[in-house]
Amino acid sequence: xxxxxxxxxxxxxxxIQKITDLDLEVSAWKIKKEMLEAEVMLEATLTDxxxxxxxxxxxxxxxxxxxxxxxxxxxxxxxxxxxxASSKLDEEKRKFEILKMMFDxxxxxxxxxxxxx
Length: 117
Description:
This protein is mainly α.
């Protein structure tokens, strides 16, 4: 049977730090997205600039159009950054799960070696 080496704890701590940093980044992008959506809603409903046939656009219309992209694509850019950060966060979480599995396999192998002595 091939000997399994325990993952380096430094590597595990590095991955934990990356997860923490990326979690913060994802949260920041989510907040920015929500703020931009709120700004779109306010501007669309409180200014005459975006009237449709002389009336304030419906919330459904705003939700399905300007709130998805922003008036000039500003929400789209934020959503892309959010998706990128979320993807990186998921990747680091998977790395950490693999490191934990490697540690569990090493621990099991070590226990089996001790009992066979």
